[in-house]
Each structure stands twice: as C-alpha cells, then as structure tokens.
Amino acid sequence: MTRRDPIALGRMVLVALLLASPTGVVLAVLAAQQRVGLLWAALVWLGVVLILAMLVRSHLVRLAGLAGWIRSLALGGEPGPPPGRDDPTLGGIVAAVGGLRRMSAQRAAELTSVARWNEGLLDGLPDPLLLLDPARRVVRDNKAARLLFGRGLVGRDISLVLRHPAVLEAIDAVLAGAGAQECEFTQPVPVERVFLARVGRPEGQAPEGASAMLTLHDLTDLKRIERMRADFVANASHELRTPLAAVAGFIDTLRGPARDDEEARDRFLAIMAEQAQRMSRLIADLLSLSRIELNEHTAPSERVDLGRLLIGAAEALRPLAEARGMRVELSLDPGLAPMLGQPDELTQLFQNLIDNAIKYGRADSAITVSAAPAGPEDLPAAAAALKAGPVLRVAVRDQGDGIAREHLPRLTERFYRVDTAGSRRMGGTGLGLAIVKHIVNRHRGVMTIDSVVGQGSTFTVWLPAAGR
Ligand SMILES: Nc1ncnc2c1ncn2[C@@H]1O[C@H](COP(=O)(O)OP(=O)(O)OP(=O)(O)O)[C@@H](O)[C@H]1O
Ligand SMILES: [Mg+2]
Question: Per the UniProt record, which residue ranges are transmembrane (predicted)?
Fold first, then answer.
C-alpha cells in the first residue's frame, strides 16, 4: 500500500472509523451526561481513530508486501524471505503459502521426471516416430527417427525429409480429419529399406499442438525373408524339374523310337540313373538343411575330438581327390582341445568344404586341412564374439581358380553358385555351403572365406572349444 493508493487509504480510514465507533459511542454518552467535556471527548475520539488508523495501516502495508511476494512467486521469481514471517496473524498465511510452494515444486519435479520418462520411452521405441502440427511441421521426434533422418527435425516440414507422395497424402488426410492411414514406401538411401508408414491422430490433449502421429515400421527383413522363401521354392522346384524332365524324356524315347535299340537303352538308363541320383541327393540335402535349421537354436553337447573327426572326413574323400590327382594334407596341432558338437554334422561340414576344394581346386594340386587352437589376437572381426573363451580354427585351403570378391557374401545362400552350369555338371546341388553355414551357426561358430582369384580359396571355421 502506498500513499498514492486512494482506495487503500479510504479503506484504512473506514476500518479505523469502524473500529473506533464503540469508543465514540461511549465518549458521546459521557459527553451527553456532561461527565466529560465535548471537546475533550472529541479529541480523545480523534486520538483513538488516529492510533487505530496507524495500526490498520501498518497491517495493510504488511499484507500488501505479502501479496507482492506471493505475486512474484506466482510469476516464477525468487523474491527472498517472505515479509511478515514473525507476524502472528500473517505467519499462518506465510506458512500456508510455503506449503503450497513446496507442493508445487514437488509437482513440477514429478512432471519433469514423467516428461523425461516419456521421452525415454519414445527414444526406446525401435520404430521411428514423429508428431506433426497442423502445418505438417515436426513438433517431436524419437531417437530412431533421428537415426533415420538425422538431427534437427523439429520445426521442419516433414516433406523436406520424407518426399513420398503416398505418405504425405496420408498425413494430409489425417490432418484434414480422416481416420488412421497406412501405406508402404521404399527409402533408397543410405541403404534401401522398405517401411510401413502409419499415420493417426494422437489421443487426448497432445503437446505442442501435435495433430498427427507418424510411425515407420521397417519391413525390409520381412520382405527379404518373403522373397527368399519364394526364391527357395522356385529354385528347389527348378533344380528338381531339370533332372525329372530328363528322366521323363528318356522314358518316352525308350518307349518309342529307341524301343528296340539295345545300345541306346543302356546309355539312356545310365543317364536316367544318374539323374535319379541327382534328385535323391537334392532331396537328401534339402532334408538335411531343414533338420539342421530346426535344431539350430539348441547347441550340441557331445564331446568331439576334432582331430580324429577331420582324419575320418579326409579319408572318406581321398578316392575322390585321387581321381583328380589331388592329395589331402592334414596339419593337426597336437594340443587341440576337445569341443562340444554333433559329430555327424561336423563331419558333413568338413566333408562339404573338402569336397568343394576337390571340385574347384586345380587337378594334381594339394588341399590342406589344418586345425589349431586360436588365440584372441588371431580372431578376425567377424569372430570377435568368440573372444570370451578358447577357440579352435579349422582351415580348408585349395589351389584353385579362387572366387571373385563380389560372390563371397552370397556363397552360403541356398542354390547360389558362381558357375551354375559347371556346378550342375559336377553333380552339385548348390546347397553344400548353405548346410555348412547352418552347422557352423548351430555350433555357435563363425566361418570366414578368403580367396585370391587365380590362386585359391581358404574356408576357415572358428569354433568354440569345450571348457568355456
Ligand atoms: N573352394 C572353392 N573354390 C571355388 N569356388 C567355390 C569353392 N567352394 C565353393 N565354391 C563356389 O560356391 C558355390 C556354392 O558352393 P556349394 O558347396 O554351396 O554348392 P556346390 O558345390 O555347387 O554344390 P554341392 O555342394 O551341393 O555339391 C559353388 O558352386 C562354387 O561356385
Ligand atoms: Mg559344395
């Protein structure tokens, strides 16, 4: 309260007059009974009014100070200690305001932590999420969205980072009041990815005027698996259809024109037997692949002496190698630790690798099969996950034409061959390395391929030894 505040001044005088009225009545009665002089009574009453006015004023000044302090608090200021803390009448108000202040600070802290938690939740989502205002500007993003589109999204029009017309149309439709929308689109950079975009309205009172919520679900892997499955069925049927067509053709010939040609009959029957063998090999490989895949999540637990197993695998293929004038040289470290595995699968693994080395190595050259413990420093980056314990390294090296670099990542795909006709001619199904990969996976190992065109290839299998 200030002197220039006429309303407060008037209120102060009015309150003083009201408070002084009982004294006035008493003095008036005493003056009327002539017990005191009129002037004396008037002076005394004026004195009382003055004292009361001063008391009321000082009270009102403190109240005004307290009001100013509370106002400054409400505006978010830090006004220092409250006025009238020691005043018994104002002390209650100060204490109550202090309580309110503490409660509101606690609420604010709670709200901040809830907001931070929500932010953490959004950032924890694997899918990119964006909130957009009615002008299609980003008002909030999450970590996955920042990873996909880069930082600095907030405040920008979504069409600057996402230019697909179908997605923008879906956003516009939702902003215009339509229900939730979905559409697929392909993001070509940095690597091609397929997304399912979902646009909807955020529920309730959305912050920062968000009127549309856009989430992107990555369908790339799903699409790839879908394509792989379709390719697999197409490839498998094609691989079966070729020998089947040959067999059917020879049956027709034997029934018709070659019916009485004994020499042709023997030749055709030999080809038919070979084609039938090829079909049964293919079916055996497919079954074997599906069996290993089924068991892939359970690690095998038999104790295997890898040295002995490799000697057996090499021995079984020795006649095949000798037929091409090749020799299989074994180099086994005497300190080879045992490992946990499935012996038949491991034999199949190394026989497939040695078989490839025989098929794709140069005639009359040597194939080296070496096995030794591997230290952590020997492990390539691809096998870094095995660092936690002892590792065995088995390498099958041939001296052949080698494999061009661009084929390496795809070699373990089913039916993938560098030279399809050549592999077929040699009776290959193109499933050997796919089987190898699944057996290695089941044994929690890693396979690396090194190849130099014109010199040869080395297929190395890194396997965890027992005793981890
Ligand atoms: N040691 C190698 N040297 C050169 N090329 C190889 C070697 N091993 C595999 N390849 C190439 O990888 C392809 C796939 O090998 P994979 O073992 O899966 O099939 P395949 O040998 O053709 O048939 P299968 O193993 O079923 O008899 C082969 O067709 C061949 O082109
Ligand atoms: Mg093979």
Answer: 12-32, 38-56
pLDDT of residue 213: 95
Q: Where are the domains of the chain?
A: 6-96, 125-218, 221-295, 300-464
The mean predicted confidence, pLDDT, of the chain is 90
Pick the CATH number of 221-295 from 3.40.30.10, 3.40.50.300, 1.10.3660.10, 1.10.287.130: 1.10.287.130
What pLDDT is recorded for position 189? 75
Ligand 1 neighbour 357 (Cβ under 6 A): yes
96 by Cβ neighbours in 10 Å (0-12 / 13-18 / 19+) ranks as exposed
Q: Could you tell which of 326, 328, 411 is best to mutate to test the pocket of ligand 1, judged by most ligand atoms within 8 Å of the CB?
A: 411
Given CATH 3.30.450.20, say whether it is the number of domain 125-218: yes
Q: Taking ligand 2, which is a single-atom ion, which protein residues have CB atoms under 5 Å away?
A: 356, 432
How far from chain centre, in Å, is Cα 466?
Answer: 33
Triad 41, 42, 43: Cα angle to 5°: 90
At 407 the pLDDT is 95
Ranges of residues in the chain with a pLDDT under 70 are 1-7, 84, 468
